[in-house]
Automatic annotation (TrEMBL):
InterPro entries: Isochorismatase-like_dom, Isochorismatase-like_hydrls, Isochorismatase-like_sf. It holds the Pfam family Isochorismatase. One of its GO terms (molecular function) is hydrolase activity. This is Nicotinamidase-related amidase. The keyword Hydrolase applies. SUPFAM superfamilies: Isochorismatase-like hydrolases. Coiled coil: none annotated. Residues 20-206 form the Isochorismatase-like domain. It comes from Humibacillus xanthopallidus. Keywords: Hydrolase.
Length: 230
């Protein structure tokens, strides 16, 4: 067993890479690019672009180390049979789920807008979890997959911090997984929600997780590497 220790809030986060997965939540065109679900709700999606470069670095490192990598996508079957009416009819968006948009039908599986952005595209062999809800555990096989792989810790990234990231971390925490959320690799359309959502995770002694910036996570991994002597 290799123990990595990351300086995190509210306390050091300890994990073994062999039993840890990097989770990238919903880095889909529908949330991150114009013309998708996020923009249809009135959001300025450009703010989420800041997440991409640090997340690319974390993903590259995970691939190099052979960490388990899991991508998720929020979306619905083409007949919308897995989309609750309340979700479909909520609010007054410019386009509803299932409507045709510039990147295909909004938040529908198989459409261009539903897929993950090119910069973070899954490699063959990486798991992609399709989920109808905000949480990555609800109505998916994620829990079974993690258990079968002996995964006990999650490094959590993606969008949006206060919605799908939060829901997933809460679900994971209730199932006994230890979650480290990388603060610069998660993004919200609302700066005030980003701040509050991260604070809520690590408050009260880490009520449902730990939070650290990705450079601290990456340097903890690097510090564990053996140094070559001359
Ligand atoms: C939202 C998500 N915000 N991926 N989904 O509806 O956070």
């Amino acid at each position: 067993m290799t123990e990595i220790i990351v300086e995190a809030a509210p306390s050091p986060f300890r994990f073994d890479p062999a039993s840890t997965a990097l989770v990238l939540i919903d880095m889909q065109r529908d949330f991150v690019e114009p013309g998708g679900f996020g923009e249809s709700l009135g959001n300025d999606v450009s703010i989420l672009q800041a997440v991409v470069p640090p997340l690319q670095a974390v993903l590259a490192d995970a691939r190099e180390r052979g960490l388990t990598v899991i991508h998720t996508r929020e979306g619905h079957r083409p007949d919308l049979s897995d989309c609750p009416p309340a979700k479909l009819m909520r609010g007054a968006p410019s386009m509803r789920i299932g409507d045709p948009g510039p990147k295909g039908r909004i938040l529908v599986r198989g459409e261009y807008g539903h897929d993950i952005i090119d910069d973070l595209a899954p490699l063959p062999g990486e798991v992609v979890i399709d989920k109808p809800g905000k949480g990555s555990f609800y109505a998916t096989g994620l829990d079974d997959l993690l258990q079968a792989s002996g995964i006990t810790s999650l490094i959590v990234t993606g969008v949006t911090t206060e919605v799908c990231v939060h829901t997933t971390v809460r679900e994971a925490n209730d199932r006994g997984y230890e979650c480290l959320v990388l603060s610069d690799c998660v993004g919200s359309y609302f700066p005030e929600f980003q701040k509050a959502a991260l604070a809520m995770i690590s408050a009260q002694g880490g009520i449902f997780g730990w939070v650290a910036p990705s450079p601290d996570y990456l340097s903890a991994l690097t510090a564990d590497e053996p140094t070559l002597s001359a």
